[in-house]
Amino acid sequence: MPRNYLLLCLIFALGCVSTAETHSEKKKAVDWVDPHIDAANSRWFFFSSACRPFGMVNLSPDNLLGGTWGTGYRYHVDTIRGFSHVHAWQLSGVSVMPTTKAWQPNADPDAYSETFSHDEEIVKAGYHKLRLNDGIQVELTSTTRVGFHRYSYLEEQTPYIIFNLTGPLGPSIMTKGQVEQTAKDEITGYTVNGATRRRPKEAPVYFVAKFDQEIEKFEAWEGKKFLEEGKAAEGKKCGVRIAFAPSSEADQYVRMKVGISYVSIEQARLNLQAELDHWDFDRVVEESQDEWDDHLSLIEVEGGTDDQKRRFYTDLWHALQGRRIISDANGKYCDMTGPEKRIGQIPLDSSGKPKFNHYNSDSYWGAQWTLNTLWHLVYPEITEEFCESMLMMYRDGGLIPRGPSGGNYTYVMTGASSTPFFVSAYQKGIRGEIDWEEAYTALRKNHMPGGIMARAGYEHKTELGGGLEYYIERGYVPYPLPKRPNSGYHEDGGGQTLENAYQDWTMAQLALALDKREDYEMFRSRGQNYRNIYDAEEGWMRPKTLKDEWLEPYDPLKYDDGWVEATAVASTWFVPQDLPGLAELMGGEQALIEKLNRSFELAREHDFVNPSEEDRDKYLNYGNQPSMQTAHIFNYVGAPWLTQYWTREVIEKTYSGADPDHGYFGDEDQGLMGALSVLLKTGIFSMKGGCSVEPYYELSGPLFEKITFHLNQDYYPGTSFSIETENLSLENRFIQSASWRGETWNKVFLMHEDLVKGGTLKLEMGKQANQSWGSEPLPGS
Fold first, then answer.
1. Residues forming a β-bridge with 172
2. Count of CB atoms within 10 A of residue 169's CB?
C-alpha cells in the first residue's frame, strides 16, 4: 500500500479526532443534563422532564401513585399509570393517559395502565419521549404554565385520552373533580388536592385542554358508570374518556395543549392563550431547551470527564426547578392564608406585566449553605423574585413563610429558615424594589413569640412546638416539651436551639446593617445560645430537659433524639456563626480539628451519608442538610488543606453518581442538594450563608480545570468571574499557591464585593498539602 495513502489515512483519522473534540467542546450546557440520574429513588417532586425553570407545569410519567415518597416516575417500574402536569411540594394534578383499550370506568388507574421500555425512551430537559407497549408513542414538552402533548397512534387504532380527576396522586388525594366539553376541540374542568397534614387547606387545579382536531366522543363518568355521551361530570370519583376519529395513516397524531391555573378555568385559558397560541410542537421543545441553556450556561466548566459534566449540569438543573410558580401569566394568584380563599394580584409594571412571580416552595432549611450562595451570585434576579413572593405572603397572611404550598402556610421543618435567605440578599446588594424596612419588620416578627420560630414542623393550630418562650427565657429549647394536642413534628430542642441561634445571628447582622443597635445587641446575644447546650464532659452538644438538666439517657449517635433529622455528633458542628467560639468550648482549634477529622474518617466508611432509614446513627450526613457544611469548618481553624481534602472525598463518594440508582441518596430537597453539589465542584462556599455585613466566599479545590461564572450586570458590575487550575487531578487536590487578578493570593476567601467586579482566580494544585497556603484568618474567625 502506498506510503502517501497511509499518511492521508492518518491525517484523516487525526482530523476526525480533532473534529470530535471540537464538537464535544461546543456541546451546549443543556445537552449535558440527564434527568435519569437518581430516577429510581426519591419522591414525587424529584423527577422532571417536560418543564421550564420553576415551571408551574412539570409534566412527566407516573409509574407509581399515592404517597409523597416512592411515587411519580420510578425508573425500574415498567408500568405507566398516567402523565400528570403537577409534581410539586405537596401538590399534584391533572393526570391524563392516552390509550386504545376498551375500558370501563374504574377508580383504579391500573385499569388503563400500560407497560413501556426504556429502549425507545428519550428524556431531556424540557422534553420526554417514549413508546407504550400498546403502540402509542408519547411526546411531552411545556411552556411555564401549559403542558403540550403529541401522541402517535397506530393505523386504524381509535385514539382515546383519559382524564382521571380523582383518587390518589402523589402527596394528595384528589378529592373532587369536574369536566365538561366547551367546544368541538376543547374540554375544561378542575381537580382538587385534598388537605394534608402538611398543607391544611385544599388546593384546586383548574385546566383547559385544547386539541388539534375535533372530539368525536366525550364520555364522562361518575363512580363506575359512563354518563350520557356529552354530559359533564362532577364529583368524588369522576373523569372523562375522549375519543377521536381513527385514521388510515400509519402514524396518526393527536396534539393536546393543557393550560393550568390555581385560580380559575378562565385563568387557565388565559395562561394557554398567553403562552402557546400555535401547534408547533418541535418549536416548543427547541424554545424549552434554549431557555434551560440560557440558565445553565451562566456557569461554564472546562475539563473533567463527560460523566462529571453530565452530573454537574444535572445538579445545576435541579437547583433551578424544584420550587414552582403558582401565579398566572397576568399576575393573579390564589391566597389561602386566611379563613377563605382569596384571589390576589401581583403588582404590574409600566407595560402591564407582573413585576415578579409567586412561588410554591419546600423549606429553606439548609438554604444558607446552598441557594444563598448559588442563586444570589449567579441568579440574583431569581433571589429578588423569591423575596418579593415571600413578602407578598406576609402581607396576605401576616408571616413570611418557611415553605408555602398552594397559597397555604405549611410550617415545614423548624426555625425561621427564610431569614438567612433575605439577609444574604440584602448584604449582597440585591435590593430591587423591596421595602427593606417592611422586610425587617416581617423577619423580626418571625423570631418573636407568635412568629414562625414559635412553631414546630406542620404546627398549624398552636405556637408551642417551637419552644420559643423557653428559648428566649432560658437560652435553649428543652427536650422533650410537654405533650399536647395539635403539636408539630421535629420538636427536637437541641436542634431547634442551634438553628435558632444561627438565625438570630443573621438577624443581628441585618439589624447592624440597618443601624438598629438595640435589636442588634438582642439578636447577637441570642446567637450565642448554642453555648448553653454544649456538654464539655461529653464533648458534644446535648439536649437539656424542662428541669434544666442534661438529657438522660444520652447517646450522641442516636438519631432524632432531640436533634432535627440528625444526631448530636452531626449537629454539634451547627455553629456557622461562631466557629472560634465552638473551638474554644472544645479546648482550642487543634482539639476541634482532631475531633472533626476523626468524624470524617468514620463517616467515610458509610460514604458520608445515612445508608438507610434503619441505619442513621452516623457521624456526618451529606445526604441531608444539618451537617453538609462540616468540611468547610477546617478553613476557619487554620487547616484549609483538610477542607480541600474532605470536600473532594465527599464529591467522589457522595456526589459523583450519574445513573438511575445513584445521585442524591433519596433526598434532593427541591434544589438544595443539587446546589450543594454545584458549589462543592466549583470550590466556593459560604459558611455563614452570606449573611455577614461584608459577605465573602471560602475556597476549596474545584473539580474542573476552568469554571466561569457569568454575572448579571443588572445587579453586579463585573461581566464574569473565573477559577482556573493547573495540575488538577483526583490526587492533586491541594492548593499549592494562588493568584487573584494576577497578584499573589494567600487568603482562603474572596470578598463578595470584590468577586462580583470580575476577575480570575488561578490555583496551582498538587498532591501534597501546602499547610502554609491560606494562612490568613477569615473575617470574623
1. 169
2. 30
